[in-house]
User: Which sequence fits this backbone?
């Protein structure tokens, strides 16, 4: 019986974790950040974790806190503007002796220290910090890593459709020297893609590179290769998708004028070409960028003899090229982009203007649906926006106004600090139903900065370093149809969270609520009823010496009038050990959901440079273990084994991805060399 298996699984997992001796260590920085994530499932898409990739680079290359500047503090995205001001003022008066000295600064508590200790070190500033191109490579630090994944199962596509082997491989290289020069490249082969065959004559299906020069004369940033852009609040040009659905992220300053290296394996969300930021004066910065890239797209020829009548109907974002059809659509859409940004900063005032012009080789016309009739269409696109920020005493006002080829968008936030331990945030956004923002990423309840008007409020109260409470609410309207909502609609989502710490124990309870309208299944949009989603998460962790034990209890309830309620719950137990030369983690999860509406998510430790947040439906369990060996200060080996077993199905997945088994097992390995 499956219930006997469940009982055995829970007992074994519990005993394995509870009988491990414990010693004290710092919680991994990635877990600290992930503990702050809202329960909204929109935060679990692959691109939402690019922000963590950016933090990983900073984790690998720590900064001397005594030499830090405003931009470096803002890029961490967990310090408020007031906290940054207080840190800079304190360091200006006297250098730090210890990182824990930051607790003497107003507004800085243990939680901020727990974050910052992973990204900063303390060292006296050298007066002679002169550099030249001769010693640029002399003091360089390089890192080369290779990852290999081998699935212990076979998908249906490998019978006659997939063109390559089932294993996954990637190679990463990055070099940094004196915070002046950065360069790197990525090579990736996805599962099922050919290797040194067909169009992949040079082995890997995806390749990416970048070379960046920082803070040389008036050049603040010069980057050649693949990059990302963030200006203002992201209405015109945004890259912080991790922040799109989180009100908490808006407590921290935005990174206007940000040009970042694209060092991840995301094959869609980036630009390719050249970008630069020039410091014209203390107050003015000018950024310019040019991009030319080839995207995957489905080209439809209306008239075979006239290429001008060809259109792109679908743009593919996965980067997968496993079948002949995938290669047929590969790199069909050629896109060119040119743009400028001018930022002005003086005391507490910031102003900026951003604009771009984009042209494709084929016009883009998606297959017509009622909900997408106002999506961007055509061959050429442009956007222009004005962003602003004003900081006065305990108030901070910031926002952006943007105009596309069609439509208008605006967002504004007011942040108020009545006391050191209290934060109040008020947000308003207006995204017209016909606003075209090809590269927009800003706060929204959906994945598009379009067709949404709303107000949101957040209250954060920190009693002391051990207790905090937050409350948020967001009411919004959609003036046009959306996917699975065949009429103008409205909705509300709210969140209540409490964190407490007592000695070695941390406890968090979070409740998430969402109400929105949705088409009833199998009615073709003729019947639309409100839906109600409730999620509760209880988290308790215990750390002592080198050990960390953590338990998560999740419950989901999905309701729709006249429709049977959908329930889901999940129990997750993890245990990890950290030492200088050896780390390991063990995690077990049992889940049981009625259907996809009551699905559950669980963060799982993974090998370096990767995050894994599986979505579970049905009934089953998952086990995983991660081992890390630091053989020397330069050489590190890492491996992960994972197994997912379902009690309620004979086949996992569908279509070409289907696995004819109840069990799915996978093995991952990584080797990293620093030199």
Assistant:
């Amino acid at each position: 019986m499956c219930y006997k298996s469940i009982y055995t699984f829970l007992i074994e997992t519990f005993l394995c974790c509870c009988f491990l001796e414990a010693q004290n260590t710092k919680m991994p920085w990635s877990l600290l950040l992930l503990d702050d994530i809202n329960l909204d499932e929109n935060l679990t898409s692959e691109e939402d974790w690019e922000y963590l990739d950016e933090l990983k680079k900073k984790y690998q290359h720590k900064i001397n806190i005594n030499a830090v500047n405003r931009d470096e503090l803002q890029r961490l995205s967990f310090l408020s503007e007031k906290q940054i001001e207080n840190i800079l003022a304190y360091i200006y008066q006297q250098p730090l002796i210890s990182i824990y000295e930051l607790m003497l600064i107003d507004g800085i508590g243990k939680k901020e220290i727990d974050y910052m200790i992973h990204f900063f070190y303390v060292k006296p500033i050298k007066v002679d910090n002169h550099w030249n191109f001769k010693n640029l490579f002399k003091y360089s630090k390089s890192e080369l890593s290779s990852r290999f994944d081998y699935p212990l199962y076979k998908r249906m596509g490998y019978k006659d459709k997939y063109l390559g082997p089932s294993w996954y491989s990637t190679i990463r290289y990055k070099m940094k020297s004196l915070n002046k020069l950065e360069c790197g490249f990525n090579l990736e082969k996805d599962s099922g893609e050919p290797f040194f065959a067909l169009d992949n004559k040079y082995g890997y299906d995806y390749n990416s590179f970048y070379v960046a020069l920082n803070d040389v004369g008036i050049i603040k940033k010069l980057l050649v290769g693949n990059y990302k852009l963030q200006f203002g609040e992201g209405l015109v040009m945004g890259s912080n998708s991790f922040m799109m659905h989180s009100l908490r992220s808006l407590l921290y300053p935005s990174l206007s004028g940000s040009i970042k290296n694209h060092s991840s394996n995301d094959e869609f969300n980036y630009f390719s070409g050249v970008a630069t930021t020039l410091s014209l004066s203390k107050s003015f910065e000018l950024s310019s960028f040019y991009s030319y890239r080839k995207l995957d797209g489905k080209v439809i020829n209306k008239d075979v003899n006239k290429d001008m009548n060809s259109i792109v109907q679908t743009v593919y974002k996965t980067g997968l090229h496993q079948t002949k059809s995938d290669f047929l659509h590969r790199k069909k859409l050629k896109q060119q982009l040119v743009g400028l940004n001018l930022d002005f900063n003086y005391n507490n005032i910031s102003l900026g203007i951003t604009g771009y012009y984009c042209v494709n080789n084929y016009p883009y016309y998606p297959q017509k649906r009622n909900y997408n009739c106002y999506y961007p269409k055509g061959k050429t696109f442009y956007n222009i926006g004005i962003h602003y920020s004003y900081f006065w005493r305990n108030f901070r006002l910031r926002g952006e106004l943007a105009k596309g080829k069609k439509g208008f968008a605006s967002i504004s936030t007011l942040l108020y600090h009545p006391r050191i331990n209290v934060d109040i945030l008020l947000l308003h956004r207006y995204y017209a139903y016909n606003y075209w923002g090809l590269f927009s990423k800003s706060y929204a309840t959906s994945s598009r900065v379009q067709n949404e008007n709303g107000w949101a409020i957040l209250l954060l109260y920190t009693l002391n370093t051990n207790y905090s409470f937050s409350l948020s609410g967001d009411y919004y309207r959609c003036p046009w149809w959306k996917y699975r909502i065949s009429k103008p609609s409205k909705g509300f989502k709210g969140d209540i969270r409490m964190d407490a710490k007592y000695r070695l124990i941390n406890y968090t309870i979070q409740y998430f609520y969402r109400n929105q309208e949705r088409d009833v299944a199998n009615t073709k949009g003729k019947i639309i009823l409100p839906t109600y989603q409730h999620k509760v998460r209880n988290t308790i962790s215990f750390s002592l010496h080198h050990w960390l034990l953590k338990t998560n209890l999740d419950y989901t309830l999905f309701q729709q009038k006249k429709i049977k309620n959908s329930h889901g719950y999940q129990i997750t137990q993890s245990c990890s050990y950290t030492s200088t030369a050896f780390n390991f983690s063990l995690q077990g999860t049992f889940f049981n959901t009625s259907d996809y509406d009551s699905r559950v998510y669980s963060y799982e430790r993974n090998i370096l440079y990767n995050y894994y947040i599986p979505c579970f439906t049905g009934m089953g369990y998952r086990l995983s273990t991660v081992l890390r060996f630091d053989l020397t200060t330069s050489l590190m080996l890492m491996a992960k084994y994972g197994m997912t077993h379902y009690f309620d199905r004979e086949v996992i997945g569908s279509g070409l991805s289907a696995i004819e088994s109840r069990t799915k097992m996978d093995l991952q390995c990584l080797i990293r060399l620093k030199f």
